[in-house]
Amino acid sequence: MRPQALNRKQQPHESVAAYSKDMFNIMERLQMKDDAANINQYLQGLKPEIRDRMLLMKPTSLRDAELNALLLEKSLETSPET
């Protein structure tokens, strides 16, 4: 079991970049090699407003997941509240 990675959540004021860096370090330290599981773990830890949109995109790699999450974060920061 990988409790540290399983419990890691992006904090309210934490950037996607900071969350990604920490998650990737945890995955490397724990030698997590299953790409599908890693993508799922990464997505589940994102803030809900980013995670919900990311799940619809179905990224096929961690790099795609990170890049799309970064873009979503940027668009949410610049879009007016509805």
Determine the CATH topology: Non-ribosomal Peptide Synthetase Peptidyl Carrier Protein, Chain A
List the secondary-structure elements in sequence, H or E. HHHHH
Give me the oligomer status. Answer: single chain
Strand percentage: under 5%
- Reading off the top of the CATH hierarchy, the class is best stated as Mainly Alpha
Mean pLDDT: 90
Low-confidence stretches: none
Quick one: how many beta strands? 0
What does this structure look like?
With 82 residues, this protein is mainly alpha-helical. It has a single domain, classed as Non-ribosomal Peptide Synthetase Peptidyl Carrier Protein, Chain A (Orthogonal Bundle). Helices cover 70% and strands 0% of the residues. It is built from five helices and no strands. The protein has helices at 3-7, 16-29, 35-45, 48-57, 62-78. The chain is globular. It starts with a helix and ends with a helix. The model has no long low-confidence stretch (mean pLDDT 90).
Q: Layout of SSEs?
A:
Blueprint (H helix, E strand, L loop, with lengths): L2 H5 L8 H14 L5 H11 L2 H10 L4 H17 L4
Quick synopsis:
Helices cover 70% and strands 0% of the residues. The protein is an all-alpha fold and 82 residues long. The protein has one domain: Orthogonal Bundle (Non-ribosomal Peptide Synthetase Peptidyl Carrier Protein, Chain A).
